[in-house]
Amino acid sequence: MRLYSVQIMTCLLTLTGAIPNGPGPAGRMCHVPEAGECVKGMKPRSHRIIYSYANCGQVFCDTTTNDGGWIIFQRRIFGDVSFNRTWAEYQRGFGTYCTDYWLGLETISLFTNRHYYELRIDMQKGKNVHYAVYNTFKVGTYRDNYRLTIDYYSGNAGNDFVTHSNAMFSTKDKDNDASESNCAEFFNSGWWFTDCFTDNLNGDLKNSDWGMGVIWAPLMPDFNGSLDWVEMKMRRK
């Protein structure tokens, strides 16, 4: 999927207000059912559906978790897509609905700057599924290097991610972190790095070396190993 800012803004301007027949609560953005289902992408649960919006692009939606209406903007399940990407790739997005994927910073920014959004992160480590919800979620514009804002946590996964709030996004070719080194280059991933991270959900899903995997610190205090899978999703409030 490749969505550019002009195309995205055209789509968003077309979607003025709620579409009452769409899935999920009225006023939320997972709307206009079109396109087909992706069999592989239905794992690990069976409520993953692709929706088109304004015939301009597509978002991958979770229509059942906590009343549905979630736009899934990051997915790490299969380990088949590298997240060691350039700034331009993270801006535009990469992967597909049948693989792991990243929706794109520009898309996420345009959604969260037009309306108020909440963030939900679902993840599994071992036999247990965990979640974290942030009632405030915003990704700034490219002029501010897609700065992250999150607040008001609830869930059972732990709240270390809040330490990344106010961090700018960094990649191996654009270092915006607070460290003297390039965290994105060292940990082979783009992320809202600080100095360097407490959590990193864009690490290497198949890498169990210290700090190199998909890390959620409250579940992995020694920073070894990797989550089994994780999804990041946003919902209009």
UniProtKB/TrEMBL annotation:
Annotated SUPFAM superfamilies: Fibrinogen C-terminal domain-like
InterPro entries from the UniProt entry: Fibrinogen-like_C, Fibrinogen_a/b/g_C_1, Fibrinogen_a/b/g_C_dom, Fibrinogen_C-term_domain
Domain of life from the UniProt record: Eukaryota
Signal peptide: 1-18
Boundaries of every Fibrinogen C-terminal domain copy: 21-237
Designated name of the protein: Fibrinogen C domain-containing protein 1-like
Keywords annotated in UniProt: Signal
GO cellular component terms attached to this protein's record: extracellular space
